[in-house]
């Protein structure tokens, strides 16, 4: 559409200028000769009758209005000495023999002039003035929108993405992205897998000389926030090639064929800038497995996917184009998209381990004021399970906390506060609890902390707080794993369920009633138990029978697994209930045996609002 405006806008502007010039050229008035008839049309010589004498009406002489009948009567009697006929206003001004000046209303110019000439009356015909302000204003009014046409087109381009955006909202190639592999940490294996892609983009002829078919497509997958987009930019930066970036949602439209045209456009640009890299973020928006339905938006998505498949088959290995895509859900992609010859190389970008987190923290803290004694290895242990995006957020929050507190450096205390803000949200001290509610929350959190401390193999308790945080947490118990875990045993999962049920059991034992505060704990505990029974084969009644599909994503225990219907599902529900109730009985018995420790810790927590893991160990030390 913008090309249409550019093409026809120039033509319209030229036409408007030509129109104004014609109006200005016609603004020269014709010459009027006294004693003759002048006309604005074709020249028709008119001469005054011989012997006719008289003068034209003088300016400023009094003029009276007369009708056509009076004029005809005076003309027949020969009392009309001279006349002036205005063709623009179609009025006739004539001088009577007595010298009086008369004006007659609208007349027929042709008929009246013939009558005057036939009677031998000297007549002066005044043609319409060629210059009219109205004509000039009309021409300028026609030209004004054309003068603003370039501004409208520029504003339209700015709304669609600015100078760096293409016609369809797809970013133009960047010459040399500044990101390099040195700016990416915590994913060394992924960088090694992508090193060959960098080599191919730098020197594709070497691959062709060896007869090696380089990968056309590279699929980056993993949890959100692990740095997939950053890795793609680093590959283009290391290779020094243009970088085209588009999101999967950029190709999705309600009109069939628009998405396919956008795919064709971005690959046409890539061919013009080869060697280069095309990166499609969140490709699952258009690359989901195709189904039998082909109506509405689904038809548009499938046509877009088909065009993407055709384009990837359309360029040869010598073209020097690499298509890279990222997704959080590789399990939903169409098999035709991940077959060899298309996205045939899959690179997993997982959550960083302890060494990776330490390297990421070093990158994000290098330009911040940090205390000399800040131990990055300890911080990495303190942030188990964090992604690269979480660590960047924690470093930024730590700098903000230090700035608000007026500190000169970021210390361990500021970073600890930042991690708590990332995990549980900011403190809500304005949310005031009643004494009874505060007491219930204190028992609840102490129940979590004591069960986690007393069960073998549990994660160490770092902090217990009854200061409300985030949107709904009235308190929290912070645990930090000793090391990264990739497998969980049945005993560890049961202990995790017990820790989650510790708050509910403490409310029941020490407050005499239960509250709604354990809702999230119960949901997570039931989720772990259900996955144990239906996915991991850890149940006694179902045995090795599984009811849920395998999940290719990272292992998580904070979401309940899918259920099923029928007698088998009822059996699974019964076993899940048995597991949860058994763990609840175990927790109740454990807290009953340590009543004194629960009361002492609850009293300290009510007085201080925050206690550390060392305080829990100190209270339990006399009990052995």
Describe this structure in words.
This protein has 624 residues and is α/β, with parallel strands linked by helices. It is built from 22 helices and 13 strands. It has helices at residues 2-25, 68-76, 109-118, 133-147, 149-159, 188-202, 204-209, 228-239, 258-273, 284-287, 297-314, 335-338, 354-365, 376-382, 388-404, 412-424, 435-454, 490-510, 519-534, 567-593, 595-608, 613-620, and strands at residues 63-66, 80-86, 91-96, 101-104, 122-126, 217-221, 243-247, 276-281, 321-327, 345-348, 461-465, 476-479, 610-612. It has a five-stranded mixed β-sheet with strand order 1-4-3-2-5. The chain has a five-stranded parallel β-sheet with strand order 7-8-9-6-10, sandwiched between helices. A three-stranded antiparallel β-sheet has the order 12-11-13. Helix 9 runs parallel beside helix 11 (297-314), helix 17 packs across helix 21 (595-608) and helix 18 (490-510) runs antiparallel to helix 19 (519-534). The longest helix has 27 residues, at 567-593. The chain is elongated and about 145 Å long. Residues 1-5, 27-56, 160-176, 292-297 and 550-560 have low confidence and may be disordered.
């Amino acid at each position: 559409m913008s090309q249409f405006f550019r093409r026809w806008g120039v033509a319209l502007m030229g036409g408007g200028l030509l129109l104004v010039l014609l109006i200005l050229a016609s603004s020269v008035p014709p010459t009027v000769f006294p004693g003759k008839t002048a006309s604005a049309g074709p020249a028709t010589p008119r001469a005054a009758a011989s012997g006719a004498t008289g003068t034209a009406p003088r300016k400023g002489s009094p003029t009276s209005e007369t009708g056509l009948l009076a004029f005809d009567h005076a003309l027949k009697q020969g009392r009309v000495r001279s006349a002036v006929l205005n063709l623009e206003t179609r009025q006739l001004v004539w001088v009577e023999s007595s010298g009086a000046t008369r004006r007659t209303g609208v007349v027929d110019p042709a008929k009246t002039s013939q009558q005057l000439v036939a009677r031998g009356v000297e007549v002066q015909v005044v043609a319409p003035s060629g210059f009219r302000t109205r004509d000039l204003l009309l021409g300028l009014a026609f030209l004004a929108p054309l003068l603003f046409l370039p501004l409208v087109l520029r504003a339209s381009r700015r709304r669609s993405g600015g100078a760096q955006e293409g016609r369809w909202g797809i970013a133009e190639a960047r010459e040399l992205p500044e990101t390099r592999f040195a700016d990416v940490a915590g994913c060394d294996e992924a960088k090694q897998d992508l090193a060959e892609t960098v080599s191919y983009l730098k020197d594709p002829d070497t691959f062709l000389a060896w007869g090696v078919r380089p990968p056309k497509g590279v699929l980056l997958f993993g949890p959100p926030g692990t740095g997939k987009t950053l890795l793609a930019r680093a590959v283009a930066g290391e290779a020094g090639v243009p970088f085209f970036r588009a999101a999967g949602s950029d190709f999705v439209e309600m009109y069939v064929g628009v998405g396919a045209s956008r795919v064709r456009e971005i690959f046409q640009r890539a061919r013009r800038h080869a060697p280069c890299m095309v990166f499609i973020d969140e490709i699952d928006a258009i690359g989901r497995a195709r189904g039998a339905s082909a109506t509405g938006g689904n038809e548009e998505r499938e046509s877009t996917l088909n065009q993407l498949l055709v384009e990837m088959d359309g360029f040869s290995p010598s073209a020097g184009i690499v298509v890279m895509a990222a997704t959080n859900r590789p399990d939903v992609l169409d098999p035709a998209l991940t077959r060899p010859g298309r996205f045939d190389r899959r690179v997993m970008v997982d959550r960083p381990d302890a060494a990776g987190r330490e390297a990421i923290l070093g990158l994000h803290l290098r330009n911040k004021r940090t205390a000399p004694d800040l131990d990055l290895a300890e911080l990495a242990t303190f942030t188990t399970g964090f992604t690269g995006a979480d660590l960047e957020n924690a470093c930024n929050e730590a700098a903000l906390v230090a700035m608000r507190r007026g500190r000169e450096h970021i210390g361990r205390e500021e970073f600890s506060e930042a991690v708590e803000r990332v995990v549980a949200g900011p403190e809500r001290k304005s949310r005031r609890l009643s004494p009874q509610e505060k007491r219930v929350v204190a028992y609840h959190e102490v129940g979590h902390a004591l069960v986690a401390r007393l069960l073998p193999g549990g994660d160490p308790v770092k902090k217990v707080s009854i200061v409300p945080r985030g949107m709904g947490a009235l308190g929290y118990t912070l645990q930090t794993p000793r090391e990264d875990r990739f497998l969980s045993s049945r005993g560890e999962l049961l202990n995790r369920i017990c820790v989650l049920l510790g708050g509910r059991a403490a409310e029941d034992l020490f407050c005499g009633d239960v509250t709604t505060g354990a809702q999230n704990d119960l949901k997570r505990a039931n989720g772990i138990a259900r996955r144990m029974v239906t996915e991991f084969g850890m149940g006694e009644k179902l045995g090795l029978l599984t009811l849920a599909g395998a999940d290719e994503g990272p292992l998580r225990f904070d979401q309940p697994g899918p259920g099923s219907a029928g007698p088998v599902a009822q059996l699974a529900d019964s076993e899940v209930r048995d597991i949860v109730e058994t763990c609840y009985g175990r927790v109740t018995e454990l807290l009953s045996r340590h009543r004194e420790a629960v009361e002492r810790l609850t009293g300290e927590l009510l007085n201080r609002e925050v206690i550390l893991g060392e305080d829990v160990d100190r209270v339990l030390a006399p009990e052995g």
